[in-house]
Amino acid sequence: MGQSPFAKSSSALGSPINRRRSTRIEYVVPIAISGRDATGQAFREETETIMVSAHGANFRSRSRVLIGMQLTVENLLDSQSEKAICIRVTPQENAEDRQVVAIQLVIPRNIWGTKDPPADWRHAMVADSPVPPPPAEALSLASASATRSSRAEAPLIDGLDRRVAEITESALQDLRRQAALIAQETLREFESCLKALEAGVETRMAQRAENTSSDAERSLDHLLYEFLEQLTARSNQVAADAEEDLRRRISELFSPLLKMASAAYPEKKEGAEIKK
Question: Quick one: pLDDT band at residue 136, thresholds 50, 70, 90?
C-alpha cells in the first residue's frame, strides 16, 4: 500500500493495490494541474508529463503542492480530466529548478492519449474503474429492480472510499518517511554547526588569552621601569637629605670647640686681623 503507482515491479502481490499496479512508460503530453496549494490559494499550472501509467504520472511543477492534496489533471490535447492525489514531491538540488510531483489517479484511466498502452493498463482500468451506471431504460423498471440497482451502487461507493483512503494512507507514509529524513539531515547540520561554533570559540579564547598575556607582560615591564625610576629618585633624595643633616650636625658638634679655640688663642685672631 505504500508503493507509488510507478513501481517497476508488477509481481508484488502483497495487497489488492499492488496487484493492480500498471506499467509506467516515458510519455510526454501537455497537461494542466489545478487545485489549492499549500497556502490554500487556488492555482492552475500548465506543464507536461515525464512518465505515465494507467494509475498516474509524474511531472515538474513550480506550485507549492503537498503530499495528500487532491488535484485535477487535464490533458490539454483532448481535454480529458480526472481527479488525482499527490503521493510524492521530490525537491530539486537547486532552488530555481522545478520539483518533481507524482500523482495517482483516483480512477485509473488512459487520459494521456497513448495509442498502444501496455497490456496491463486494460486490466488495471477494468479492475479499478467503477461499474457503469444502469442505462436510462432501467430506470423505468419495477421498484424491485430499482432497489437492486441502488444496492449494486453501494459497493461501488464503498470501493471508491476505500481506494481514496488507501491512496491517502500511502501518501501519508511517504510524507512520514520524508519528514524523518529531513529531521535527521537537520540534526546533522545542527551538530556540524555546533562543532564549528565550538572550535571558533576555542580559537578566539586562545587568541584572547595570548593577547592578554602579552599585554600583561608589557604592563608589568612598564610598571617595573616606573618603580625603578621612582626608587632611584627617592634614594637620591634620601642621600641628599642625609648628607645635609650630617653637615648640620657636624657644624653643631664642632661649634663649641671653635669658640673655645678662639678664646684660648686671641693673638692668632688679632694677628690674622693685622695681616688682613
Answer: very low
Tell me if residue 86 falls in helix, strand or coil.
strand
Q: How far apart are CA 56 and CA 99, in angstroms?
A: 17
**Which residues are 256's β-sheet partners?**
none
Residue of 53, 21, 51, 27 whose CA lies nearest to 128? 21
**Which residues lie below 8 Å from residue 64, measured CB to CB, with a gap of 6+?**
37, 38, 39
3 state SS of 81: strand
pLDDT at residue 265 tops 90: no
Highest mean pLDDT among 130-144, 173-187, 231-245: 231-245
Residues whose CB falls within 8 Å of the CB of residue 71, separated by 6 or more in sequence, listed in order: 33, 34, 35, 65, 83, 84, 85, 86, 103
Q: Residues for the chain: how many in total?
A: 276
What is the number of alpha carbons within 13 Å of residue 142 lying toward its C-beta?
1
Angular region, 68: left φ>0, alpha ψ -120 to 50, beta rest: left
List, for residues 63-118, the tens digit of each pLDDT value: 989 999 999 999 999 999 999 999 999 887 777 788 999 999 999 999 999 988 99
Q: How much is the pTM?
A: 0.45
Region label for 32, one of left (φ > 0), alpha (ψ between -120 and 50) or beta (otherwise): beta
